[in-house]
User: Fold this.
Amino acid sequence: MLASLIIIVFFVTRMVGDPVRLMLHPNATDEQIQTVRAKYGLDDPLLVQFGHFLSGLPRGDFGDSMWQRAPALEIVLNRLPATLYLAGVTMAIAFPIAVALGIISAVWPRSLADRIVTVLSLAGLSIADFWLALMMILFFAEGLGWFPTSGFGGAKFVVLPALTLAARPLGRISQIQRTAMLDELANGYVTTARAKGLSERVVVLFHTLKNASIPTVTMAGHEVASLLNGAIVIEVIFGWPGIGSLLIQAIERRDLTIVVAATVVIAALVITVNFVVDLIYGWADPRVRFG
Amino acid sequence: MDRQRSATAAKVASGFCKSRRSRRDLIKQAAALGISLPMVGASLAASRSVAAQADGSIVISLADEPLTLENWNSFSIYGHPILRNIMEALTNRDPATNELVGELATSWERTDDLTWRFTLRPGVTFHNGEPLTAEVAAYGLNYTWDPANGFEILAILGPELTAEAVDDLTLDVKTAEPDPILPTRLYFSPLPSMKQLTEDPESAVDNPIGTGPYKFVEWTRGQDVKITANPDWWGDEAEDAGGAVTIQDGTFVFRTESAVRAAQIVANEAQATHNLAPEDCAVVPVCTSVPSIETLILRMDTMNEAMKDIRVRQAIAQAVDVKAAVEAVLPGSTAATQIYGPSALGYNDALQPYPYDLEAAKALIQEAAADGVPVDAPITLVTTSSTARGAELVQYVANQLQQIGLNASSKVIESAEFRPQVYGLGQDKVPADRGWIVLLQHGNELMDASASIDRYYSCNPDSDSTFCNPDIEKQIEAARLLTGEERDKAYQELGALIQQQYAIIPVAHLVINYGMVANLNWEPRMDAFMLLKEMSYS
Assistant:
């Protein structure tokens, strides 16, 4: 899958515009354009360029950034920790709260608590992250002064972007958790557990929760993947120096090596996340391991 | 006349709308915007957070991060807010009068039609200890303007030039054609270190070395650029340095969203910012709106079968209510009559915007159609997402053109696609059936009409012009060689003449909104430089 993606990204980025024309002034002569093309190997036939690209891949050599004049992979990897940090904090906020809300909803269906959780989860899903980010800044940073408006630094800088990003996974995961828990609570083994006199807390937390976790983990993995490649808007608004904001700048300037390197790194991360999710399946449901 | 023009520009610049907002004002505005709760919070914070910044440092929030810190990039809005604090040019402008003044040159004169001679300021050293000599200056200018290097400054502020040292502090700069405004062009061309360029040219990308009042410290890409005061700056002991260093350290951070930059000012995380939307400028402690060198224009493909006919172009011009459009979507900006503003030499005060007359426009289209002009040919209003209020404006104009019977539509394209289709094509390379009317933002950095007219009305196939009239071309060539009052008069006449060609509709002279904390003493400049030496805290 990664190989297919690499091939697609390589050829698509070569088809969307001439990076040299963007780099040089609009009235650059053909000679100047050819000189720069030769410098970056862009004057070779496409298949030759692809061959050079493939030969560099095992060494992690995606070529140099045309604008930053440094190895593209190094530039992308420099931005990676900020992206992982933001995604990690976001999920650390969203996942436990979402699971707790989903359980509350499922244990007391159609109650006031259930309705509040449903409304909150729908709001989290449907709210525009762009608008939410600005409101977060206006209220918590500008108004109350609790957090910085934006930027990157200590722990306080991550709170607002992470809270903003947490809205969507919180909504999605809590809904999935609720549905999965309701299904599990209707099963016979739950009735048996209750008949044996186990407390509702034990039934829910020790008998039902683990069995209901497979769809939740699947959704959480999907959300982590989305955070790794879809936090562009939030990174740009908050001035967060992650891969997303780098990618936007690279796309605008057709900095092809960075676009390709960032895409490949993000894809590798998503594949890793999916692999971890598969491992968790095995823990949650032994049938997966033995099947 | 130069002085008169500068005075006019200064007068325009003096129209700054400075506002210090009360808490009550802010609450009212917040309620009007329908987001009263957070905005009230913001206003409370605003009143709390404008405490004096006494540690001698400043954070400036910029809308865009530069892609490179090479000296040539200091002509651009992305580059000069940072670079002109680190690097200096032969000339600069007096921020109060807009008059050209010496910076690294103490005087200059035209020795013949093709040569300007500059006398360099003695005792200037670069941040790496390299002394500024004529040889160093010549190397730097030749590097910056060398066509082989292909730097964008050449396309924007060209044509090319060459420099050579006469003696230690005397520099000759030559051009292939007579260039009466060469010192003005060089104002956007700061001098790099020859030592750096010869020993480690790649380092110029992210380690700028200049002679300026601030030294580069570090650039953390995606986050900030840090500079610190240069203890060896020549200006500390000179009376004509154009400012004084009272702030020790500067940090430039990058926030794309205007609302976020305004929030930084309110929260005192940043002390100055630029390019605020009017609604965001209203909430910062101090909002200053400054006339800029930027003008929005609608450029027609006059080689198109329909727009080749002057009646069609006139109809298009008369179908657009420029004044109403500017008032509606660009508050603070003024309707334009020329593609350069009052700051430019050659600006004609007597000209009026094209009259808005939809019925007359319809009649012109019908007349052209009756004569066989293909008025049903597709016309596309095009802009890019970075153009101020571009999407709204092209939709409005397309709608107006439909009303007069033209087959018009609009589209917004990304800048990477926009640039190669709009700039540097000249008339020959634009497909005749394209039929574009491009809304674009044009900056007259040189503050001289020639910079705009050469670019957008010339027959030069390498220019950005989609218009060519051989008779007017002769007048353009003649005006280019003139100086002083003659030049001013010639360009004023040209302005009146080209207005009657309806090739470009000037839309608006844009203002730039700056936000700052209450205790920062700073008058923003028309050229949008953000020089820390002109700032201080009270």
Residues 1-54 of chain B have pLDDT under 50 and may be disordered. The first strand of chain B starts at residue 19 and ends at 20. Residues 3-48 of chain B form one domain. Chain B touches chain A through 55 residues (CB under 8 Å).
